[in-house]
Amino acid sequence: MESWKKTLLISAGVIFFQSAGLSMMMPFLPLYLKDLGVTNPQAQATWSGLLSFVSFFFVALLAPVWGTLSDKYGRKPLILRATFGISLIAFLMSLVTNVYQLLVLRILHGFCGGVMPTFIALVAHHLPRERTGQGLGGMQVSLLAGNIVGPFIGGLLSDWVGYRNVLLVIFSLAVNVKCPDHALHPRGKTRPGDSFFYHHG
């Protein structure tokens, strides 16, 4: 398979799993809040809205920042940050004992997101000019598919394994989904930050 196709497929796969992980918690969030002591239905609705909002708000707010940093320091450090940050926070969310701890972790979840600009830059740089539109369209499809499939899978799993174990599933997915070096450097081009991780990561 041509290197640009590998880059596109791997990038799309990572984006899919990360977006699915971010949205997998949404279906059972009000029920999880009840386990954390928020029993008033109105309070559950308020907290559910707030917890959903803060994560995606910080993803959107910081996406340009992470994109700029990836240009300066390399793409792999930013992708690793997002992947392992999301996995660690998902694990910690399975251990929370009150809604305030969950709020802090949802904010941090958003801080670790926003990797889409990095992948867009990666794909746009390495795809043939005549394939750029197709590749960027595929990345958007992967992002939307993850947001659609994530809540469906999260709802099913919450019935089968319980709310906290779904968060452990998200943790496992994020730990095991990574972007190999040949996808990040398909033409042997590195940036300073990429070079460090390439040889030592």
Question: What CATH architecture label applies?
Answer: Up-down Bundle
Report the order of strands and helices.
HHHHHHHHHH
Low-confidence stretches: 179-201
Oligomer: single chain
* Rg calc: 18 Å
The largest pleated sheet is described as: none
What structural class do the secondary elements suggest?
mainly alpha
What's the CATH C level? Mainly Alpha
Count of discrete structural domains: 1
CATH superfamily: MFS general substrate transporter like domains
According to CATH, what is the topology? Growth Hormone, Chain: A
Q: Give the overall silhouette.
A: elongated
Number of extended strands: 0
Give the proportion of residues in helices.
over 70%
Q: With helices defined by DSSP (H or I, 4 residues minimum), what is the helix count?
A: 10
Overall pLDDT = 79
Distance between the termini: 25 Å
**How much of the sequence is in beta strands?**
under 5%
